[in-house]
């Protein structure tokens, strides 16, 4: 028999004794009645505590469920934010790459611009010095471009520059670099190339530009270029700007000599 059942039988026995008139004058009746009253009150208190405790636990369980659901909601929001942040970061990276690409390329011809050429020239100079290899470069200027531009207009002049840049990009070797230095002037970077090799390459480019027909609607029969060359063989420890200056001066010499020609160093 369980403890609860024993207590219930004991209470029933006491209640029967107290209700029996034969024990009305028993000296223990009053203390027993008082104990029964206290026991009943205590049981009521315990039952109330149990009900309160059950209610408390139920509220706690509901709060836990509510907290768990709220936590799940926040976690889902954070996951979405992370996904959005990843996409945002990727978009920023793509935008940054696009902006850098735009900052390094000439918007008209699509070739590298002056900034691009300076960065690559510095890197190529350092690489060639480490490898003990020569580096040559050419400064190419379109002959009589100002007169052509004034006669045809800027829109056709721009198209003529694009025509020349396409020929340069098509004719240069895979590892050569070509960019628009400014206006009608282009710079050619020829890694691991001696002055004599650079002269042959630039002369081939000159003849290709002269002999390739221009688009008919440009109304230009023939276009020629003058090219000046410099090389690290002249000054192995010199700066890129010094090399550009030497090539630029030789390009002017080629123009003064009648244009449509290449002028390089005499080594």
Automatic annotation (TrEMBL):
One Gene Ontology term, aspect cellular component: plasma membrane
Organism: Thiohalospira halophila DSM 15071
One MF term in the entry's GO annotations: diguanylate cyclase activity
Cofactor: Mg(2+)
Gene3D superfamilies for the chain: 3.30.70.270
Entry-linked PROSITE patterns: GGDEF
Biological process terms in GO annotation: cell adhesion involved in single-species biofilm formation; negative regulation of bacterial-type flagellum-dependent cell motility
Catalytic activity reported: 2 GTP = 3',3'-c-di-GMP + 2 diphosphate
EC number(s) reported in the record: 2.7.7.65
Source organism superkingdom: Bacteria
Transmembrane region(s): none
InterPro entries xref list: Diguanylate_Cyclase (IPR050469), GGDEF_dom (IPR000160), Nucleotide_cyclase (IPR029787), Rev_trsase/Diguanyl_cyclase (IPR043128)
UniProt name for this protein: diguanylate cyclase
Sequence ranges assigned to domain GGDEF in this UniProt record: 133-267
Pfam families: GGDEF
């Amino acid at each position: 028999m369980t403890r609860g059942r024993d207590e219930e039988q004991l209470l029933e026995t006491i209640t029967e004794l107290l209700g029996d008139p034969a024990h009305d004058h028993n000296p223990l009746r009053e203390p027993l009645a008082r104990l029964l009253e206290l026991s009943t009150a205590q049981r009521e208190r315990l039952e109330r505590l149990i009900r309160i405790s059950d209610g408390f636990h139920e509220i706690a369980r509901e709060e836990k469920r509510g907290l768990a659901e709220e936590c799940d909601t926040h976690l889902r929001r954070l996951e979405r934010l992370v996904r959005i942040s990843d996409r945002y970061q990727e978009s920023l990276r793509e935008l940054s790459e696009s902006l850098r690409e735009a900052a390094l390329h000439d918007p008209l011809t699509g070739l590298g611009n002056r900034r691009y050429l300076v960065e690559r020239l510095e890197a190529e100079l350092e690489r060639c010095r480490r490898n003990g290899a020569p580096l040559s470069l050419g400064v190419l200027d379109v002959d009589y471009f100002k007169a052509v531009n004034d006669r045809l207009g800027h829109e056709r002049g721009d198209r003529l520059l694009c025509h020349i840049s396409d020929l340069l990009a098509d004719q240069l070797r895979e590892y050569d670099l070509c960019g628009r230095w400014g206006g009608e002037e282009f710079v050619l970077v020829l890694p691991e190339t001696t002055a004599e090799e650079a002269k042959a390459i630039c002369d081939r480019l000159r003849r290709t530009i002269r002999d390739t027909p221009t688009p008919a609607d440009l109304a230009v029969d023939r276009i020629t270029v003058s090219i000046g060359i410099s090389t690290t063989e002249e000054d192995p420890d010199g700066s890129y700007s010094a090399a550009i200056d030497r090539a630029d001066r030789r390009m002017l010499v080629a123009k003064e000599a009648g244009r449509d020609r290449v002028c390089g160093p005499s080594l």
